[in-house]
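Summary of Year 1 activities. Much of the first year was spent building the evaluation harness for sequence design. The harness presents a backbone, in tokenized form, and records the residue chosen at every position. We chose the following record to illustrate the format because it has been used consistently in internal testing since the harness was completed.
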């Protein structure tokens, strides 16, 4: 019988014996499993102010991991033995928004209860998923600090539309889950927010760095200074990455794209700088709509950000 080139159930993907792709390091969670990185999908975007298919992003970001190898030429180190435990995606409610948010909180809490990993990555979803996710970490670890990469403050009022992707940090602060002085916002863009929300950040003691601040001082030095400060007063630090902080030229797949954001290189270097701090244990990535993306550019950038967080 001649050799068969058919591989039932498997994609016809070329395999180089010397190259390990990051997606090959993913292992589905099972009881008793241990690894360095825990991964969970929060596929929820029904609270988005604008139409968004960000609920499809966990799938597209996972798929984009196949575009990267585990070897860092800059660091001359292969991370192929780093184990990524995938806890899967949360099943949300088809119509009840508050029920869905509660399911997300319960699921992140369940993941943390297993104590299986050293660091965790949450794949959204719109930015509304940060509210239940950060709540879960606060309940588990106590005092929490947050570094938020974002073009927007995300402290909108709750009267006009309830909890949306524009309200997570107001919800956290007013719910007593996050102190204003423990929230740092990076990359806030001009002409992207209302004066009332700028005033709210000042009232609550939130530290805000605009794009102009980043241009004058440099994003890495700002990140390092703020993490030094937070590390002295909190138990754990959580990174919340809204991909619309990145300029639309580098992240076209965001529902709220805009000019004047940070570059992809600035994003990756700042994530690396943040991940090097001992108390940084978690990161969420939100606001990618694969249906609006071009050649998976935004999902691939998100996957690259994951690597900077994981391999540090």
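For this record, the design step produced the sequence shown next.
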């Amino acid at each position: 019988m001649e050799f068969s080139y058919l591989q039932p159930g498997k994609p016809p993907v070329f395999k180089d014996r010397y190259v390990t792709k990051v997606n090959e390091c993913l292992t589905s969670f099972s009881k008793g499993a241990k690894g360095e990185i825990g991964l969970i999908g929060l596929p929820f975007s029904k609270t988005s102010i604008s139409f968004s298919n960000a609920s499809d992003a966990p799938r597209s970001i996972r798929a984009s991991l196949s575009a990267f190898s585990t070897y860092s030429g800059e660091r001359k180190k292969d991370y192929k033995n780093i184990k990524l435990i995938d806890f899967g995606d949360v099943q949300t409610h088809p119509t009840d928004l508050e029920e869905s948010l509660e399911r997300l909180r319960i699921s992140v809490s369940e993941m943390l209860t297993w104590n299986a990993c050293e660091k965790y990555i949450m794949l959204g979803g719109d930015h509304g998923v940060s509210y239940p996710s950060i709540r879960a970490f606060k309940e588990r670890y106590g005092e929490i600090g947050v570094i938020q990469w974002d073009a927007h403050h995300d402290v909108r009022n709750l009267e006009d539309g309830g909890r949306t992707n524009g309200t997570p940090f107001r919800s956290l602060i007013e719910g007593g889950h996050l102190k204003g002085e423990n929230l740092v916002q990076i990359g806030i863009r001009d002409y992207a927010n209302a004066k009332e929300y700028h005033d709210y950040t000042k009232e609550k003691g939130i530290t805000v760095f605009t794009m102009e601040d980043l241009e004058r001082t440099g994003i890495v030095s700002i990140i390092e200074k703020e993490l030094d400060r937070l590390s002295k007063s909190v138990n754990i630090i959580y990174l919340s990455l809204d991909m619309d902080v990145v300029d639309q030229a580098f992240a076209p797949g965001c529902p709220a794209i805009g000019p004047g954001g940070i570059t992809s290189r600035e994003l990756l270097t700042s994530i690396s700088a943040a991940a090097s701090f001992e108390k940084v244990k978690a990161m969420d990535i939100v606001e990618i709509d694969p249906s609006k993306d071009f050649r998976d550019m935004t999902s691939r950038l998100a996957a690259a950000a994951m690597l900077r967080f994981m391999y540090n």
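The mean pLDDT is 96. Quantitative recovery figures across the full test set are reported in Table 2.
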